[in-house]
Amino acid sequence: MKSLSAILVLIGVAGCTSLPEGAPRVSGITLSPVAVALEVDARQRLLVSGAIAGREVDVTHYVNFSTDKPKVAVVDRTGQVRAVGPGEAVVTAKYGSHTAQFKLTVKPRAANQPLSFVNDVLPILSKAGCNAGSCHAKPEGQNGFKLSVFTYDPESDWREIVEDARGRRVFPAFPSESLIVKKATLAIPHEGGQRIQPGSESERVLLKWIRDGMVFQREDEPALERVSVLPTARVYRREQSQRLIVQAHYSDGSVRDVTGLADFVANDGEVATVDDHGRVIVGTVHGESTILARYMGQVAIARITVPAENRLPAEQYAALPKNNFIDELAHVQFERLGLFPSDLCTDVEFLRRASLDAIGRLPSPIEAKAFIDDPSPDKRGKLIERLLADPAYADHWANQWADLVRPNPDRAGLKSVYILDQWLRESFRANLPMDQFARAMVAASGSTHRFGPTVVYRDKRTPPELAKIFSQVFLGTRLECARCHNHPNEKWTLTDFHAFSAFFGKIGRKGSGVSPPISGGTEWFFAGGSGSVKHPVTGEALAPKPPGAPTPELDAKADPREVLVDWITAPDNPFFARAMVNRVWGNFFGRGLVEPVDDLRTSNPPVNAALLDALAKHFVEMKYDQKAIIRTVMQSRLYQLSHTPNETNTADTRNFSRMYLRRLRAEVLMDAIGDVTGVPSSFSATWPGARAVETWNFKISSEFLDAFGRPNSSSDPPCERNTSGTIVQALHLMHGDGLQKKITHAQGRARRLADSKMTVAEIADEVYLATLSRRPTQAERAQVEKFYETIKDKKDARRTATEDFIWAIINSAEFIFNH
Amino acid sequence: MNRTKYNCAGMGRRDFLQVGLGGMLGLGLADLLRAREAKAGKKINCILVWLDGGPSHYETFDPKPDAPKEIRGEFGAMKTSVPGVHFCDKVPHLAKVADKVTVVRSIWHKDPNHGGGNHYMMTGRPTPVPVNCGAFVTFHPSFGATTSYARGVIDGLPPYMSMDRMTRSGGPNFLGAEHAPFVISGDPSNKSFKVRDVVLPQGISEGRAENRRRLRRDLDNLLRITDKVAKDPAVSFDRFNAQGVDLVTSTAAQKAFDISQEDDKVRDRYGRNSFGQRMLLARRLTEVGVSFVTVYYGGWDHHRNIFKTLNGKFMTQWDQGLAALIADLDDRGQLDNTMVVCLGEFGRTPKVNKNAGRDHWPGAMSVLLAGAGIPRGQIVGATDAKGYYAAENVYTPEDFAASLYHKLGIDPHQVLHTATGRPVQLVDGGSRIKELFA
Question: Is the pLDDT of residue B9 over 70?
């Protein structure tokens, strides 16, 4: 008996310190926040983290909470503390044998202090979605009730609720009869449904605020200065979960837990998602992402890192060859994420890939053969130099920039559009350094029929439109979002956007303005016009100021745009060099280090920040020479990886540990087909023999270019270039008359080969070299020979077979994609 | 490639689109289509006849024989197959099918420019900034593009087609280029006409096409990464190709594209001209499963000589072709699952101008609708006695758009997201025109 009771005692002890089912074993716990001062009735969520082998996991769910002074503070099972009365208290979290403590000072609530619209009510309306862009924050409101998007104009929101509709939205004598309460709680029909639960804390606050006299803001009310999120950065395992806590910090030093009223947005849903309550669920892929927490126009970022569970030995990475800093920095990232780069691609893969990416052309069969048969070890390096010196480079890059700035010719006029197009081509032909390129565009002056960049001014006629295009193109930033409301995912405010616009506030112009659909006149633009840019809410005239930088001193006589370009192209500008190299990167890898390439922001971080920084620095050192940065990118081993995955990187679609397939751009594909078939396309409004890449406006009609995603510049905003596959593309390539005519053309390659004395094997070699920049394998050659054999009894057998052979290759994935 | 854009709801725009396109990575295409159809309910396909330029309501469906001469113009009114309802006396064929259609005489708006009017009536949304007559611009997805987005590709058919061009505001805007109309140019009344890309090229037999495809299979050795986490675009390339092959090997589809297989009497009924045969082809396309077909019929901007023009074949071809389409669909029992809509960007001025023309007038316009359960033999609303303004049961373009989307099984008030993640309501307000749902 004695021994039995001893066992029971032991079990009992073990029971005390044992963990609940499913709870992880940890070496210690920490509690955050550590200490907070609260007013009576305020709440604070607590977060308990357990340490496991150098990383931390959320164990809040399993913790037992207790408080030493229940009259000061109480705590519930989920770790939410409520301040009850003045004094000091300690909350203890107990997890197995580990404990952690949280100190709390509770201050009395100021007597009769009314609730405030700005600090108490607006956050509730925001969280309930009342001021969503599709609800009452539409430009014309909804059913006569209009709020500002993301609360950029609290005063107008207050007036709308308290004074508009003859005050019937609030009923101070009987707060629960107020329309704003009854609609939101669905006590009466509401198209938007129930936004606030009857009986909830939110309803209580709303009612009390009405009862308190609907104060806009108390006189001494502290202002919201920033928000922060806990944990700010953490390393996770796949499929783990984590609660986030959002704290609002005020000008008087006070802190409020606003987790329940914050909005959360996950940047990459595959790495991690987040729910309305700030609960993060980590996904099933490795990688890095951010969760954005937004509260009353302020944002904070929680960083999520999901490394591979099985990391490879460091020696394996150390043993990898590195061609330049790109490889060094990429390997660091790979090691962290447990990715191992694919093998180097073959020489012929590199030849085709590099030619298509750098100059938008396939190598000719002669070039391909020469490259394949060149025994020199540095033939890749030599190829890069040859491509950078190729005249086709200019048209390929001008064509890409045309996507960004090319106006609708109906609006800007054909001649103007042509002049801009030619200027782009000349710029890339001369390899104009990108800082000078930016200066020419942003500070353009002169005639739209003489100087291309002025055409951007002809097309974008107001300061906000100019601010939008230049910030997107040269800063890689969608400042435009802050045109009508504060940027939802970034710190930019209305003031930032319109102060940026103010650089374009005094553009003068003369001549004939736009007059669609001909719009043929000449127009002149110059600095020194009159005008100003006003803040849309306050109406105050704004001084020009770049985003995130101090207000510059402006000489009254100088062109403020020159000052702006000085800032844009300064070596320490945080946007320009990054945006430019990110675009170049996107061209060579199919996606940017930041994706989309023109959406640089804290909440959309680069997949490899160190790499983007290093590239930007290099670009500055190279004096913004685009060819120099392209050379560096192409020389890297990273750019020369095979697209065949290994066992670590099949799921990698963003870290560049293997090359991703990219469908050829519309113009590149069309020209490639012209080269392969030996029958160029012909276009209206260009010289005979012009290639697709030389077409200069989207109205030059082409079913092919339209099917393969040429942007239509009559769309506002311009349609993005779409590289995804569609049924129309498949149909057009397989069955379109265009390709058929080219294949069967009397002067085309198929006819020439068929009518020649070449053997089938020789024909196969030439077609493979022309299309895929390689010779066929033995097996492939045999397949082709077999095909010629099977139809040899038919009429025109050799011609038919050659046509069908070229058709089959052009319609294959190996041709359509750059790999 | 897998560009993800984020909107306020925390869901990437690309995620939204992938429910339509890349969503196939997860669900099988068939599952997805089934799910979509279940949601859409009974699938109605739509033929939209676009009278570019702005047809006069006086000279079509809303004659004012009792108005003074300078308003009523040179034409008279004629009885239709619906007692008490009169159309202009230059549309005898349409008058005969009046008992199969609804004409709404009371839609109006305020944009007297072609650019703005086109946009409003083709997308359901006014332009956010004034655009003038020459403007060729879109700010919002058109009805056809949205239908394509909502329904996706069915049986390898591009869901949105347009003849013989894309109308000004017929584009997809932020829905992306894959929802742009598949434009069938060319004149189907020509002997040599064929629908581009959906039938084998001239001179290629099915046997030869199969040889080609087999050779492609043998030679296309590029690695496919079938694990869906790799998001290999070559895998979706294969899927689209397979759908395209299904389309050219489907007897039913191929027959539909070949307008010459139609009975000569039927072809004659539509009129042996480009408009008439486009109407016929539109019927054949919707029959085989194309969700939305726009037929462009421009030239209605009659600032001068309106009576001369409308007394000629420009009018008779339209009258005959459109009436034939409605009657033919009905004869085949297909009118209930096809919707025919005919309109332009606005009506025309009440007073005939000094050039014997009428100018732009958005204060009143007539819109013809038929099929899809729309009541037959009905006139909705009315203009005032002289035809200046919509006066009874007045409706807006938003109401029109909401009605059209309802009939197509698309929620008109759903929220879509632009490329930058901005939420946009498909139709801003508007309610169904109740008379169309009786």
Answer: no
For residues A547 and A437, membership in a common domain is answered with yes
What ipTM was estimated for this complex? 0.88
Check CB contact under 8 Å for B211 and A653. no
Residue closest to A295 by CA, chosen among A260, A252, A255, A267: A260
Instruction: Dump the DSSP string for A165-216.
Output: GGGTT--TTSGGG-HHHHHHTTSS--TT---S-TTSHHHHHHHHHHHTT-BS
Interface test with A, best of B8, B11, B417 (most A CBs within 10 A): B8
What is the Cα–Cα distance from A182 to A194, expressed in whole angstroms? 9
Q: Does A121 share its domain with A234? A: no
Q: Look at residue A376 and tell me whether its pLDDT is greater than 50.
A: yes
Chain centroid to Cα A155, Å, comes to 33
- Integer Cα distance of A179 and A66 in angstroms: 42
Two structure tokens written together for A749: 């390659």
Which of A211, A241, A258 corresponds to the end of one domain? A211
Would residue A219 count as lying in a domain? no
Cα(B49)–Cα(B349) distance, rounded to whole angstroms? 22
Backbone angles phi, psi at A45, to 5 degrees: -80, 145
Q: Closest partner residue to A133 among B133, B137, B423, by Cβ? A: B423
Percentage of chain A lying above the pLDDT 90 cut: 78
**Chain B residues with CB-CB distance to A712 below 8 A:** 171, 177, 180
Show which of A61, A86, A107 is a domain's final residue: A107
How do residues B339-373 score in pLDDT, each as one tens digit?
Answer: 999 999 999 999 999 999 999 999 999 999 999 99
Residue A19 is given by DSSP the state P
Q: How far is A440 from chain B (nearest CA, A)?
A: 27
- Please give, rounded to a whole number of angstroms, the shortest distance from the CA of A289 to a CA of chain B: 13
Q: Does A653 sit within 8 Å of B138, measured CB to CB?
A: no
Interface A:B, Cβ pairs < 8 A: 244
Residue for token pair 């001021």: A131
3-state secondary structure of A662: strand
Are A785 and A770 in a shared domain? yes
Residue A729: which of A666, A652, A794, A796 has the closest Cα?
A666
Segment B170-227, tens digit of pLDDT: 999 999 888 999 999 999 999 999 999 999 998 899 999 999 999 999 999 999 999 9
pLDDT tens digits for range A457-515: 999 999 999 999 999 999 999 998 888 888 888 888 899 999 999 999 999 999 999 98
DSSP character at residue B382? E
User: What digits encode the pLDDT tens for the residues A337-346?
Assistant: 889 999 999 9
- Report the C-alpha gap between B298 and B226 in whole angstroms: 48
In the numeric block, which tokens belong to residue A209?
């605020």
Contacts of A699 (CB under 8 A, 6+ apart): A409, A410
Co-location of A409 and A449 in the same domain: yes
Contact B219 A411 (CB under 8 A): no
| Nearest CA among A702, A748, A707 for reference residue A730 | A707
Cα separation, A354 vs A588, in Å, equals 8
- Our count of domains for chain A comes to 6
Which residue in chain B has the smallest CA separation from A730? B241
Strands in A278-318 per DSSP E: 279-282, 287-295, 298-306
Are A547 and A422 in a shared domain? Answer: yes
Residues A376 and A399 occupy one common structural domain: no
Residue A2 lies in a domain: no
Give the pLDDT confidence score for residue B24 in this predicted structure. 34
Do A84 and A122 share a structural domain?
Answer: no
Q: What is the CATH number of the domain that holds A80?
A: 2.60.40.1080
Q: Which domain holds residue A670?
A: 666-818
Q: Do A410 and A533 sit in the same domain of this protein?
A: yes
